Amino acid sequence: MTEPKEICSVDLGSSMRDNEYTLYEDGRVLRYYDKNPWSYNNENWLEAKTLRDDIKQRLLDECPEELKEKARELLYS
Fold first, then answer.
1. How many CB atoms sit inside 10 A of residue 7's CB?
2. Which of 11, 42, 48, 64 is most buried (CB neighbours < 10 A)?
3. How many CB atoms lie within 10 A of CB 28?
4. Cα(17)–Cα(8) distance, integer angstroms
5. Per-domain residue ranges for the chain?
6. Contact 47, 29 (CB under 8 A)
7. What pLDDT is stored for residue 37 in this prediction?
């Protein structure tokens, strides 16, 4: 089985905490984040359609131009 291709990533974290989202071509999103000062490097797999609109928009803004339409379909379908 082949791994799905990464479409785009966005880092919404601060200087103290990670909060990264990576969109994959199969419609899944990997969220890599720090919950608090005692809980680092957490990972959650999410469905693209369940993300908040502001996160969807930031992902679209970070996508390469040639992948924006594919990302839009995954995020808003």
1. 24
2. 48
3. 14
4. 20
5. 6-76
6. yes
7. 83
